[in-house]
Amino acid sequence: MTVTQPSILKVLSGETLSVPPVWFMRQAGRYLPEYRALRATTSGFVDFCLNPEKAAEATLQPIRRYGFDAAILFSDILMIPLALGQDLTFAVGEGPILGELPDLAVMRERAPLAGEALQNVGETVARVKAQLGPETTLIGFCGGPWTVMTYMLNGKKAHDRSLIRSFVYEDEVRVMELLDIVIEASAWYLKKQADQGAQVLKIFESWAEGFPDPYFDSLVIQPHIRLIERVRALGVTLPIIGFPRGAEARCHDYIDAVPVQGMGLGTATPMTLGIELQKKVPIQGALDPVVLRSGGKALDAAVDLILQSWGQGPLIFNLGHGIFPDTPMAHVEQVLLRIRG
Asked: Which residue in 31, 76, 230, 250 is the catalytic one?
Protein backbone atom coordinates (compact mmCIF):
# COMPACT_ATOMS: atom_id res chain seq x y z
CA MET A 1 0.00 0.00 0.00
CA THR A 2 1.44 3.38 -1.02
CA VAL A 3 1.33 6.07 1.64
CA THR A 4 0.71 9.55 0.24
CA GLN A 5 3.02 12.23 1.54
CA PRO A 6 1.17 14.89 3.60
CA SER A 7 0.52 18.08 1.66
CA ILE A 8 2.65 20.27 3.93
CA LEU A 9 5.67 18.03 3.47
CA LYS A 10 5.12 18.21 -0.28
CA VAL A 11 5.19 22.00 -0.16
CA LEU A 12 8.28 22.08 2.04
CA SER A 13 10.04 19.89 -0.51
CA GLY A 14 9.35 22.63 -3.11
CA GLU A 15 6.13 21.39 -4.69
CA THR A 16 3.34 23.79 -5.71
CA LEU A 17 -0.15 22.45 -5.00
CA SER A 18 -3.31 23.63 -6.73
CA VAL A 19 -4.96 23.87 -3.31
CA PRO A 20 -2.39 24.98 -0.73
CA PRO A 21 -2.39 23.29 2.66
CA VAL A 22 -3.58 25.43 5.55
CA TRP A 23 -3.13 25.68 9.28
CA PHE A 24 -3.26 28.68 11.63
CA MET A 25 -0.98 29.90 14.37
CA ARG A 26 -2.80 29.55 17.70
CA GLN A 27 -5.41 27.37 16.02
CA ALA A 28 -5.76 25.64 19.40
CA GLY A 29 -6.90 28.25 21.86
CA ARG A 30 -9.47 30.41 23.53
CA TYR A 31 -11.67 31.05 20.47
CA LEU A 32 -12.76 27.39 20.73
CA PRO A 33 -15.39 26.55 23.38
CA GLU A 34 -13.96 23.05 23.76
CA TYR A 35 -10.56 24.53 24.55
CA ARG A 36 -12.00 26.90 27.16
CA ALA A 37 -13.75 23.98 28.84
CA LEU A 38 -10.55 21.91 28.84
CA ARG A 39 -8.40 24.79 30.07
CA ALA A 40 -10.76 25.36 32.98
CA THR A 41 -9.79 21.94 34.37
CA THR A 42 -6.28 23.14 35.29
CA SER A 43 -5.51 26.33 37.17
CA GLY A 44 -1.95 27.01 36.05
CA PHE A 45 -1.01 27.45 32.38
CA VAL A 46 2.42 25.86 32.86
CA ASP A 47 0.79 22.84 34.50
CA PHE A 48 -1.60 22.63 31.56
CA CYS A 49 1.24 22.69 29.03
CA LEU A 50 3.09 19.96 30.95
CA ASN A 51 0.05 17.68 31.18
CA PRO A 52 0.44 15.34 28.17
CA GLU A 53 -3.18 14.22 28.13
CA LYS A 54 -4.62 17.74 28.20
CA ALA A 55 -2.01 19.34 25.95
CA ALA A 56 -2.54 16.56 23.38
CA GLU A 57 -6.28 17.07 23.52
CA ALA A 58 -5.83 20.84 22.98
CA THR A 59 -3.57 20.12 19.99
CA LEU A 60 -6.14 17.81 18.41
CA GLN A 61 -9.28 19.91 18.97
CA PRO A 62 -8.90 22.19 15.90
CA ILE A 63 -8.02 19.19 13.74
CA ARG A 64 -11.29 17.50 14.66
CA ARG A 65 -13.32 20.66 14.16
CA TYR A 66 -11.75 22.05 10.96
CA GLY A 67 -9.54 19.39 9.40
CA PHE A 68 -6.47 21.63 9.20
CA ASP A 69 -3.58 20.14 7.25
CA ALA A 70 -1.27 20.40 10.25
CA ALA A 71 -1.50 20.07 14.00
CA ILE A 72 0.97 22.19 15.94
CA LEU A 73 2.06 21.07 19.37
CA PHE A 74 0.20 22.88 22.15
CA SER A 75 2.93 24.29 24.35
CA ASP A 76 4.75 27.58 24.92
CA ILE A 77 8.08 29.01 23.79
CA LEU A 78 9.06 29.53 27.45
CA MET A 79 9.49 25.85 28.23
CA ILE A 80 13.23 26.35 27.69
CA PRO A 81 13.75 28.74 30.64
CA LEU A 82 11.82 26.24 32.75
CA ALA A 83 14.11 23.42 31.63
CA LEU A 84 17.13 25.58 32.51
CA GLY A 85 15.88 26.08 36.07
CA GLN A 86 14.24 29.51 35.85
CA ASP A 87 10.89 29.91 37.59
CA LEU A 88 7.97 30.60 35.27
CA THR A 89 4.41 31.63 35.99
CA PHE A 90 1.62 33.15 33.91
CA ALA A 91 -0.38 35.83 35.68
CA VAL A 92 -3.87 36.66 34.46
CA GLY A 93 -3.75 39.91 32.54
CA GLU A 94 0.05 40.14 32.81
CA GLY A 95 1.39 37.23 30.79
CA PRO A 96 4.61 35.41 31.68
CA ILE A 97 6.63 36.28 34.77
CA LEU A 98 10.08 34.75 35.07
CA GLY A 99 12.10 34.42 38.24
CA GLU A 100 15.72 35.23 38.91
CA LEU A 101 18.11 34.10 36.19
CA PRO A 102 20.02 31.00 37.33
CA ASP A 103 23.80 30.97 37.31
CA LEU A 104 25.16 30.62 33.77
CA ALA A 105 27.36 27.69 34.72
CA VAL A 106 24.37 25.81 36.14
CA MET A 107 22.31 26.48 33.03
CA ARG A 108 25.17 25.37 30.80
CA GLU A 109 25.14 22.00 32.56
CA ARG A 110 21.38 21.72 32.22
CA ALA A 111 21.20 22.68 28.54
CA PRO A 112 21.96 19.20 27.08
CA LEU A 113 19.33 17.77 29.45
CA ALA A 114 16.54 20.04 28.22
CA GLY A 115 14.88 17.31 26.19
CA GLU A 116 14.67 15.04 29.20
CA ALA A 117 13.59 17.88 31.48
CA LEU A 118 10.70 18.43 29.05
CA GLN A 119 9.84 14.76 28.70
CA ASN A 120 6.18 15.60 29.33
CA VAL A 121 6.15 17.68 26.16
CA GLY A 122 7.71 14.77 24.30
CA GLU A 123 4.91 12.55 25.57
CA THR A 124 2.37 15.08 24.30
CA VAL A 125 3.94 14.86 20.84
CA ALA A 126 3.77 11.07 20.91
CA ARG A 127 0.11 11.10 22.00
CA VAL A 128 -0.85 13.50 19.23
CA LYS A 129 1.06 11.61 16.56
CA ALA A 130 -0.68 8.38 17.51
CA GLN A 131 -4.09 9.99 16.93
CA LEU A 132 -3.41 11.91 13.71
CA GLY A 133 -4.32 10.60 10.30
CA PRO A 134 -1.50 10.17 7.78
CA GLU A 135 -2.65 13.23 5.83
CA THR A 136 -2.10 15.59 8.78
CA THR A 137 1.39 16.90 9.54
CA LEU A 138 2.53 17.29 13.15
CA ILE A 139 4.58 20.44 13.75
CA GLY A 140 6.89 20.85 16.73
CA PHE A 141 8.54 24.11 17.66
CA CYS A 142 10.74 26.20 19.87
CA GLY A 143 11.13 29.89 20.45
CA GLY A 144 13.88 31.74 18.66
CA PRO A 145 17.00 32.06 20.84
CA TRP A 146 16.82 35.86 20.92
CA THR A 147 13.14 35.92 21.90
CA VAL A 148 13.55 33.30 24.63
CA MET A 149 16.63 35.02 26.01
CA THR A 150 14.74 38.32 26.09
CA TYR A 151 12.18 36.86 28.46
CA MET A 152 14.89 35.25 30.57
CA LEU A 153 16.84 38.46 31.07
CA ASN A 154 13.84 40.72 31.53
CA GLY A 155 12.22 38.56 34.18
CA LYS A 156 9.18 40.38 35.52
CA LYS A 157 9.42 43.00 32.76
CA ALA A 158 9.27 40.37 30.03
CA HIS A 159 7.54 42.56 27.46
CA ASP A 160 9.93 45.53 27.64
CA ARG A 161 12.16 44.79 24.65
CA SER A 162 14.13 48.01 25.03
CA LEU A 163 15.67 46.59 28.20
CA ILE A 164 17.17 43.63 26.39
CA ARG A 165 18.84 45.85 23.80
CA SER A 166 20.39 47.71 26.71
CA PHE A 167 21.82 44.41 27.92
CA VAL A 168 23.33 43.85 24.49
CA TYR A 169 25.00 47.25 24.43
CA GLU A 170 26.20 47.10 28.03
CA ASP A 171 27.31 43.45 28.38
CA GLU A 172 27.36 41.77 24.99
CA VAL A 173 29.69 38.98 26.16
CA ARG A 174 27.18 37.80 28.78
CA VAL A 175 24.31 38.04 26.30
CA MET A 176 26.18 35.90 23.78
CA GLU A 177 27.02 33.34 26.44
CA LEU A 178 23.35 33.05 27.40
CA LEU A 179 22.38 32.81 23.72
CA ASP A 180 24.70 29.82 23.33
CA ILE A 181 23.06 28.11 26.31
CA VAL A 182 19.56 28.72 24.90
CA ILE A 183 20.66 27.39 21.50
CA GLU A 184 22.00 24.18 23.02
CA ALA A 185 18.90 23.62 25.15
CA SER A 186 16.60 24.37 22.21
CA ALA A 187 18.42 21.89 19.98
CA TRP A 188 17.92 19.06 22.47
CA TYR A 189 14.29 20.09 22.95
CA LEU A 190 13.67 19.95 19.19
CA LYS A 191 15.40 16.58 19.03
CA LYS A 192 13.03 15.28 21.71
CA GLN A 193 10.04 16.42 19.66
CA ALA A 194 11.47 14.86 16.49
CA ASP A 195 12.16 11.58 18.28
CA GLN A 196 8.56 11.47 19.53
CA GLY A 197 6.94 11.96 16.13
CA ALA A 198 7.07 15.59 14.99
CA GLN A 199 7.37 15.84 11.20
CA VAL A 200 8.23 19.54 10.83
CA LEU A 201 9.95 21.92 13.24
CA LYS A 202 9.39 25.66 13.47
CA ILE A 203 11.48 28.41 15.08
CA PHE A 204 9.30 31.25 16.37
CA GLU A 205 11.48 34.36 16.59
CA SER A 206 8.60 36.52 17.76
CA TRP A 207 10.66 39.64 18.43
CA ALA A 208 12.84 39.85 15.34
CA GLU A 209 11.93 43.40 14.35
CA GLY A 210 13.66 46.69 14.96
CA PHE A 211 17.32 45.69 14.98
CA PRO A 212 19.90 48.28 13.93
CA ASP A 213 22.85 46.97 11.97
CA PRO A 214 24.71 44.73 12.63
CA TYR A 215 22.57 43.15 15.36
CA PHE A 216 20.01 41.36 13.20
CA ASP A 217 22.87 39.24 11.93
CA SER A 218 24.47 38.57 15.31
CA LEU A 219 21.27 38.11 17.33
CA VAL A 220 18.90 36.45 14.85
CA ILE A 221 20.64 35.08 11.76
CA GLN A 222 23.75 33.61 13.37
CA PRO A 223 21.88 32.03 16.33
CA HIS A 224 19.41 30.42 13.91
CA ILE A 225 22.26 29.05 11.83
CA ARG A 226 23.92 27.62 14.94
CA LEU A 227 20.65 26.18 16.24
CA ILE A 228 19.90 24.39 12.97
CA GLU A 229 23.48 23.14 12.67
CA ARG A 230 23.23 21.73 16.21
CA VAL A 231 19.88 20.10 15.49
CA ARG A 232 21.35 18.48 12.37
CA ALA A 233 24.40 17.33 14.35
CA LEU A 234 22.01 15.57 16.75
CA GLY A 235 20.69 13.55 13.81
CA VAL A 236 17.43 15.40 13.12
CA THR A 237 16.64 15.61 9.39
CA LEU A 238 13.12 17.09 9.52
CA PRO A 239 12.27 20.22 7.50
CA ILE A 240 12.53 23.42 9.52
CA ILE A 241 10.47 26.60 9.08
CA GLY A 242 11.99 29.88 10.22
CA PHE A 243 9.76 32.73 11.34
CA PRO A 244 11.61 35.99 12.10
CA ARG A 245 8.41 37.90 12.78
CA GLY A 246 8.43 41.58 11.90
CA ALA A 247 11.71 41.39 9.98
CA GLU A 248 10.29 41.83 6.50
CA ALA A 249 13.11 44.20 5.54
CA ARG A 250 15.65 41.50 6.37
CA CYS A 251 13.91 38.47 4.87
CA HIS A 252 16.32 38.14 1.95
CA ASP A 253 19.29 38.34 4.33
CA TYR A 254 17.70 35.64 6.48
CA ILE A 255 16.87 33.27 3.63
CA ASP A 256 20.25 33.68 2.00
CA ALA A 257 22.03 32.71 5.23
CA VAL A 258 19.81 30.40 7.29
CA PRO A 259 19.31 26.81 5.98
CA VAL A 260 15.55 26.57 6.50
CA GLN A 261 13.15 24.65 4.28
CA GLY A 262 10.32 27.14 4.76
CA MET A 263 9.85 30.80 5.66
CA GLY A 264 7.03 32.14 7.82
CA LEU A 265 5.89 35.63 6.83
CA GLY A 266 4.17 38.24 8.99
CA THR A 267 1.19 40.43 8.21
CA ALA A 268 3.33 43.36 6.97
CA THR A 269 4.87 41.33 4.13
CA PRO A 270 4.27 42.95 0.71
CA MET A 271 2.88 40.55 -1.87
CA THR A 272 5.82 41.36 -4.17
CA LEU A 273 8.31 40.39 -1.45
CA GLY A 274 6.58 37.05 -0.94
CA ILE A 275 6.83 36.35 -4.68
CA GLU A 276 10.57 37.08 -4.57
CA LEU A 277 11.14 34.89 -1.52
CA GLN A 278 9.13 32.06 -3.07
CA LYS A 279 11.79 31.73 -5.73
CA LYS A 280 14.21 30.74 -2.98
CA VAL A 281 12.14 28.80 -0.44
CA PRO A 282 8.52 27.73 0.23
CA ILE A 283 6.65 30.40 2.16
CA GLN A 284 3.98 30.36 4.85
CA GLY A 285 1.59 33.13 5.89
CA ALA A 286 0.54 35.94 6.05
CA LEU A 287 -3.18 36.58 6.55
CA ASP A 288 -3.92 39.37 9.02
CA PRO A 289 -5.60 37.90 12.13
CA VAL A 290 -7.53 41.17 12.40
CA VAL A 291 -9.25 40.57 9.07
CA LEU A 292 -9.89 36.98 10.15
CA ARG A 293 -11.69 38.35 13.19
CA SER A 294 -13.61 40.89 11.07
CA GLY A 295 -14.82 38.43 8.42
CA GLY A 296 -17.11 39.37 5.56
CA LYS A 297 -16.03 40.61 2.15
CA ALA A 298 -12.76 41.99 3.51
CA LEU A 299 -11.75 38.51 4.62
CA ASP A 300 -12.64 36.97 1.26
CA ALA A 301 -10.61 39.66 -0.51
CA ALA A 302 -7.59 39.14 1.74
CA VAL A 303 -7.65 35.38 1.19
CA ASP A 304 -8.01 35.84 -2.56
CA LEU A 305 -5.09 38.28 -2.69
CA ILE A 306 -2.74 35.78 -1.04
CA LEU A 307 -3.91 32.92 -3.25
CA GLN A 308 -3.60 35.01 -6.42
CA SER A 309 -0.21 36.44 -5.47
CA TRP A 310 1.47 33.39 -3.94
CA GLY A 311 -0.56 30.44 -5.16
CA GLN A 312 1.69 29.96 -8.21
CA GLY A 313 4.57 28.83 -5.98
CA PRO A 314 5.07 26.60 -2.96
CA LEU A 315 2.70 28.02 -0.32
CA ILE A 316 1.37 26.99 3.08
CA PHE A 317 -1.62 29.21 3.85
CA ASN A 318 -1.44 30.63 7.36
CA LEU A 319 -1.80 33.76 9.43
CA GLY A 320 0.87 36.40 9.93
CA HIS A 321 0.31 36.05 13.68
CA GLY A 322 -1.96 34.07 16.00
CA ILE A 323 -5.76 33.89 16.10
CA PHE A 324 -7.38 36.41 18.44
CA PRO A 325 -9.44 34.82 21.25
CA ASP A 326 -12.60 36.67 20.12
CA THR A 327 -12.41 35.43 16.52
CA PRO A 328 -15.74 33.89 15.41
CA MET A 329 -15.37 30.24 14.47
CA ALA A 330 -17.47 30.85 11.37
CA HIS A 331 -14.71 33.07 10.00
CA VAL A 332 -12.22 30.21 10.17
CA GLU A 333 -14.70 28.08 8.26
CA GLN A 334 -15.08 30.93 5.75
CA VAL A 335 -11.33 30.89 5.02
CA LEU A 336 -11.20 27.13 4.63
CA LEU A 337 -14.15 27.19 2.24
CA ARG A 338 -12.52 29.97 0.23
CA ILE A 339 -9.28 28.01 -0.09
CA ARG A 340 -10.66 24.54 -0.61
CA GLY A 341 -13.85 25.38 -2.47
From this structure: 76
